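Data deposition worksheet. Section B asks for the primary sequence of the deposited chain exactly as it was used as input, without tags or linkers unless they were present during the calculation. Section C holds the resulting structure in token form. Section D is free text for depositor observations; keep each observation to a single sentence. Incomplete worksheets are returned to the depositor.
Section A, Depositor: J.P.
Section B:
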Amino acid sequence: MKRFVQAGLVAALAVAGLAHAATELVIATVNNGHMIEMQKLTPFFEKAYPDIKLKWVVLEEGTLRQRVTTDIATKGGQFDVMTIGLYEAPIWSKKGWLQPIATDAAYDVDDLLPAIRAGLSNEGKLYAAPFYGESSMLMYRKDLADKAGFKMPAQPTWTQVKDLAAKMHDPKAGVYGMCLRGKPGWGDNMAFLTTLVNTYGGQWFDMGWKPQIDTKPWKDAISFYVDLMKNYGPPGASANSFNENLALFNEGKCGMWVDATIAASFISDPKQSKVADKVAFAQAPVAVTPKGANWLWTWNLAIPSSSTKAAAAQTFVKWATSKDYIQLVAKEQGWAMVPTGTRKSTYANPEFQKVAKFAEEEKKAIDSANLTDSTLPKSPYVGVQYAAIPEFQAIGVAVGQQMSAALSGKVTVDQALKTSQTAAEREMKKAGYYK
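Section C:
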């Protein structure tokens, strides 16, 4: 009898061990502030769902993209939950690489901001749950603008911004007039530069899918950018992306910064920013047209079709992107730190409105971005700061390297555009878009 009891105990322990192993979720995510906060809140999830353990793989943005793209395309099954962008969601859902998110009444899918919900849906089903959403906008030191005698318009022109950068620029005092992305990558420098090109009247491809990089709007936009940063940017700007510029701004070293709206909560937080009480916000600057001047992006949690732990993955994804999660962050970190840009209820919350002086500008920017109409000439692609086609990643990376080289003075703007045009044409012809 004792032997049977022991055997039963061993079997029960083995089953328990298997059950435990089966519910370890491997989550790939990006090393941005909100994602790091989500990781810190793991104990709250594991307490609520003791049969699920979370294992985090936190990566720099470019590395994350490479790893998750390779894993999902090869059905590697390395990750149970992936952090993916607005670019990947429609492409991957159409390929059948993602499992639909099983939303219920408590999740309240109708509470998601319309532009973001639409971008993550395919044939009426949500294929990725938005963790936070963003557009881009101008963030600036109001004290320095006041000192220069400048009153910021609701949506300034790039010419006005350049004039103000010249007045704010004081390298001896450790202040640079303008901080902008320079680090190469389709989601790094090219996210910003595409919006600049858009507002100068440019586009990635014409209606016949022919690349339009070696054109006047691109030359005007990139020449302006290189000149602006050479004269009024920080040293080594060609290596800076979001996190580097955020650190500079928080140290009081940027007069102005055009980047993701999500930065607003960090730069206005006195715990993180030395200039929290001096910042103000405006819409992204415009040149020839307001079209496509500010981007639209979301970081989302998605479940690859290859995951064998779908039920546990669905539980986690819904938890991390729910109204309750936002309340949890507010309780633990304060309303100024909640992930924004996803839910109407967040912006309607009086507690959030009280602390988030950026909320109105952020929501205005997100609502104004249009994924299907972001360029002055008609374009065949969906996306503001990217083109939602599989070939865009390679093209964006190649062009990003050329633009970074132009910024650092290794090549001229003309050379960078010509090389980029040739690379883009080669890629699009190879993929059969045109002959």
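Section D:
The mean pLDDT is 93.
The first helix runs from residue 2 to 22.
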